[in-house]
Amino acid sequence: MAGTPVSVITNSFLIQTLPTKTYFQYDIFSSEEKLPNPAKRQRLIHALQTSAYPTVFSPRVVYDGGRLLYSSHAIRDGAFRVHGSNQSAPPDAPGWYNIRIARTAGKDVHPIHVAQLMKGQVNDESLTAANLVQLLLCQAANLRHPNTGRAYFNPEGKQTINGMAVELWRGFFQAVRPTVSRILVTVDVTVAAMYMPGPLIDVALAVLNARDPRRLAIRDERSDDFKRLERHFKKRLIMVKTSGNRTKTVHGLVPGPVGQYEFQPGSGSATTVGAHYQAAHNIRLAFPDTIGVVTSGRGAPFKVVIPIELCTMLPGQLYKKKLPPDATATVVGFAAMRPADRLRTIRRGTSTSAARPGELLSPVQEYANSEFMVEAGMLVDQNTISISGRMLPVPSLIYNNRKQVSPRDGGWNVVGSRLYAPQNMLKWAVVNFDPHHIPQQVLQGAARNLAHCCQELGMRVEQPRSVRSGSGHDVQRVIAQVVGDFGGHAADIDMILVFLPSKADDIRTRVKWVCDIKEGIRSQCLREPKVQKANNQYWNNVALKLNARLGGANALVDSPALRDLQSKPFMIMGADVAHPSPGTARPSVSSLVWSHDQHGAAYCATTRLQEPRTEIIDIENLMEMVAIAITMFGSKHKVAPASIVFYRDGVSEGEFHQVQKCEIKAVENAIDDVWKKRDIKEAKPKLTFVVVGKRHHVTFFPSEERNGDRSGNCRAGLVVDDKGLTNPQFPNGDFYLQSHSAIKGTSRSAHYTVLKDDVFGGNIAKLQELSFALCHIYAKATRSVSIPAPVYYADLACGRAKFHIDPSMDLDIDGSTTTGGEGFVLGAWTGAYEPINTNIRASMYFL
């Protein structure tokens, strides 16, 4: 095995004693048409055990938040009547539920099923056992804190995102991890976005970034302000000043003035909301002109409208929508922790000694106090474990004239180096969509500085042949003028440099749709704030992207594993699936990228749409994309690839079987089809298929300070395939590779799981070396990245899906408008989804 042996600390803890009891599994369902929302379910099950039927549920059961309960003692099947908050409420009062509990057939979890996890035996029993162990670890903390199942959160030290009614909370993530002969629990510090709690009138003003309550006196439900507020509040949980401790759900809003909203309660006479609260509660509305909140659902006898000033948003409600790009810096700054601080928090929590009010102990310190773990007989060692790893040799980067540059701490400097294959930018144009903030002299200076950096890197750049300006509403006309300046031949234009305002997502979408889809012109967008502050490093980074988009190679990586592949024609592929925000009726996007040069450095990409939130790539789409890739490769090189190394991003371990069954088979079928249709006589390519995971939360820390880099992290190139950490259920092997050095915070490794390996014949060291090398060829950077470049590129390609749809159409893949999901028709989206223009489809347009 290549590399220098090293010992590292990981954020995993040994479960010393596994469950010693048999657990019985029960299914729950209610007399309602469907179970209530997750938060209410938790409250109902909690009330069921603690106040409604405490003797029946003793010891307390473990609940998975869905339809399953696990109990260490037998419970009679039957119906249990429970109220969400007040068990002494009158029988006809709202809030009562009939919960039926029934023993499931053949789903008892015995200690032997837990032991099967350590032997890699994957079956229904062992998977159920893994779920139970996870629940036992998390149950106590999840009952006390807002949570996502595997992670729980606390408002201590929270931070508000500027311009949004959203907060960032820290918390702890916990995950069971089977290894050979033992089971671990991984604990990590994590961050979640939460809806801002507090008086609803204050939250509403924060949503609109306003201070005056008169801004909430909205009369028209079609107005942008009304729609923004309704999107933010719909389905949120609130408390109402006049309803005691009962939690209510927001089902919608009504325009103002809420005080004059008329309704007829039951058989009583019609009245207004303002008059009702004055008569029934002696409350005179301070803001009767504002909007109102609707808390009655479908089928209610009348619409229940409550003045916004009487409502309070409950804390701890997870914000699951996509955060805007300008929130990224805030999130990164809040989440980043120095490695030593992260490890200390994982071990002890947020306090330095005993926890004070508002502070969090580490889960590891809480396990011994968990009634659920005590009942199960489980014990967890409070010491982090040490693991054996290796430091892989750092590959060199090859620049022009075979000059080699050696990375240090994950980075290298290109000053004095010329790009390996610099391209010329002779016929190019400049378009300024922010002439007010970017005057002519700034524009000229930017173009001059960029040209200078390009020339220093070996590119030949002449003066732009066309300089145009216009408004963001006139993108198509302005770019048409540029094409006219080149004689009407878009294919003759090397590049359009586009200057944008600071907030210009809509303009950029129109620019990319026109350039990528309609005209087939390479384009590079630059935002005004960065241009104003630009230094030499910024223009160098832009130059790197330009050269790669023009078809050049910035640098090659020198790796023995890559040299072995180069002995015959080969392809590197990367695939990903990106999903819409939860609750949105929009398609998921799948992508495939593939190398088409002999260095594994130049890539093409293609994307497809598929059913929402479907992680497995649609089989027909994948077959079509793979066939396109192999055909393009063959057309260029006049030879078929002898091997394909396929990196698949973003699949959870629970979906690996489906990947093997569907995706690997689809790749193999695509190869078969191409060979048959083209009557290829050469042998079919060998295939290695690897899943690259980023969200596993396993983190490594130097065992000694001298073994770390300047930021205190393990050095780039750490690979861990120690049997004490790898998963026994994957016979082809799995490993962790920390290929980058974090500029800020703690470096994260990627988890590689080999699902098929015909290329390397089980020599996992070669695959490790190749993966590390591919982390050094990301064209936009002079630093190694955390995952292989083709995986990164596949993610970038998915992110450009919105550019494939005419912006004038009422279809926005990245939109956040929530819907009930009804009415989604994939065909409406695929019909509007246009392919990349043939002029640039062989370029790295996705950078």
TrEMBL record:
Residues 199-315 form the PAZ domain. Residues 495-806 form the Piwi domain. GO terms for molecular function: RNA binding. Gene3D superfamilies: 3.40.50.2300, paz domain (2.170.260.10), Ribonuclease H-like superfamily/Ribonuclease H (3.30.420.10). PANTHER family: EUKARYOTIC TRANSLATION INITIATION FACTOR 2C. This is Argonaute-like protein. It comes from Mycena maculata.
